[in-house]
Amino acid sequence: MKTSVVTGAARGIGLATARRFHEMGWHVVMVDRDERQLMAETSGFDNVEPVVCDVSRPDQVSEMASGIAACDALVNNAGVADFGPIEETGFDRWRTVMETNLDGVFLMTQALLGPLEKTGGAIVNIASISGLRASTLRVAYGTSKAGVMALTRQQAVELGEKGVRANCVCPGPVRTKLAMAVHTREIIDAYHDAVPLNRYGTEDEIANVVTFLCSDAASYVTGQVISVDGGFEAAGIGLAALRETGSRS
């Protein structure tokens, strides 16, 4: 039985990915620092192993990795979001974002490299469209996700000779519970206008791409940054008014 390790697995994209692996018959190690939520989501499932761990803490990551002999897929999904203007982003806020979003990817990869080499496994790092397209209020978040993309390429080049693949997925706007709780109607409409598919993505749609990249079907895919965003990145500065005009012509 193949084994996957998914961080930030107690909710959102991480949870959807863990469930998809479970449906595929894999053993799933679900890693999250929110013990209560993690235990609630894993209760009653076979072949699912909850591990409470803060991926930004080297000692906790080392302890988590000590119990994993072989790993076929590592999904570095754990992340924190902190949105605010540059002048209001103190160094403590900057470091909080970097510790989880970027340091955590490095620490998890380093800790599980042996188990990944043993299986010729795959790494998928979850970045964001915010790492590809600059936006207001995302100085720490966007920069951390751009760093994840660069780290992914480094992993792919260095670990390829060890038989380990590494790719990066950049979700666009996704209809998570958190997003829907904080996005106003105006923001939702604006995203719909900016995304060629005219909607938010779903957690399952992201999970489908992640699990594909971890599968044998993607055995020659490595070093790639893949946007799963309904065409958001490709659309550039496309104006809704112009698109509406075009649709009537």
Judged by helices, strands and strand pairing, the structural class is alpha/beta
Portion of residues in beta strands equals 5-15%
Determine the mean pLDDT. Answer: 92
Q: Helix amount, in percent? A: 40-55%
Structure, explained:
- The protein is α/β, with parallel strands linked by helices and 249 residues long.
- It has helices at 12-23, 35-42, 58-65, 91-111, 113-119, 139-159, 177-182, 185-194, 203-214, 240-248, and strands spanning 3-7, 27-32, 48-52, 73-76, 122-126, 165-171, 225-228.
- Helix 2 links the parallel strand 2 (27-32) and strand 3 (48-52).
- Helix 1 crosses helix 9, helix 3 runs parallel beside helix 4 and helix 4 runs parallel beside helix 6 (139-159).
- The radius of gyration is 18 Å and the shape is globular.
- Residues 245-249 have low confidence and may be disordered.
